[in-house]
């Protein structure tokens, strides 16, 4: 099953959002190629590394 299909099925369950579904893909299924853009730690790290005033956006 493709990543997007897993994310769609998991997020259909109340209380499971995109971040949780992405973490499931990474840590439970072993999909090491998933990059969670919604992860706060990653956003803060990118903001710090590139000396941005605002966290990065998806755009």
Shape: elongated
**How far from one another are the termini?**
27 Å
Sheet having the most strands: none
Q: Helical stretch count?
A: 3
Based on secondary structure, the structural category is mainly alpha
What count of domains describes the coordinates? 1
Amount of beta strand: under 5%
The average pLDDT is: 93
What are the secondary-structure elements, in order, as H or E?
HHH
The radius of gyration is 13 Å
The count of β-strands is 0
Which ranges are low-confidence, i.e. pLDDT below 50, for 5 or more consecutive residues?
Answer: none
Can you walk through the features of this model?
Helix content is 49%, strand content 0%. It is mainly alpha-helical and 59 residues long. It has one domain.
What is the fold's blueprint, element by element?
Elements: H1 3-11, H2 18-27, H3 40-49
Characteristics:
59 residues, mainly alpha, 0% strand
Give a nutshell description of this structure.
The chain is an all-alpha fold and 59 residues long. It has one domain (3-49).
């Amino acid at each position: 099953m493709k990543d997007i299909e897993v994310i769609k099925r998991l997020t259909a369950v109340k209380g499971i959002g995109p971040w949780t579904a992405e973490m499931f893909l990474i840590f439970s299924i072993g999909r090491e190629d998933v990059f969670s853009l919604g992860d706060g730690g990653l956003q803060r790290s990118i903001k710090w590394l590139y000396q941005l005033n605002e966290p990065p956006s998806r755009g």
